[in-house]
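Reviewer 2 asked us to include a model.

Predict the structure of this chain.
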Amino acid sequence: MQTATLKIENINPVRNKKFKISVISNGINKKQVFWCLVFILALFVASYIYFITQTTLNIVAYKSAEQKIIDINSEISGSEFKYISLKNKINLSLARSLGYIEASNVKFINPDATGQALSLVN
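Predicted model (C-alpha cells):
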C-alpha cells in the first residue's frame, strides 16, 4: 500500500489543514499493460493480414469463375448455332427421303367443344 500526504491550503491562512490520502495499488503494473497492448496490436495485425489474404483469394476465385462463365457461354453459343443450322436443314424433301408421308385426313380439336371428354370406347 502506498500512501501520500497532501497539504491543502485554504484561502484563509488560519484554517490550514493537512489531509492524508491513501493510494491502493490493485496489482496492475505497467509491464503487464504494455504486453497486453502489444498482444492486442499483434492480434489486429494478424487479423488484417488474414482478411487481406482472403480478399485477394476471393478476387482470384471470382476472376477464375468469370473466365469459366465466358467459356461456357461461348460453348453454349456454338451449340445453339449448330442446333439452328441442323434445324434449318430439315425440310419436306428430307422428310420424304427418310420415308415420311403427308397426312391426308387431318383432324383438329375444336376449341369451342367444352365439356366433352375423350374416350377410347367411341
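The radius of gyration is 46 Å. Residues 18 and 38 are 42 Å apart (CA to CA). We have added this to the supplementary material.
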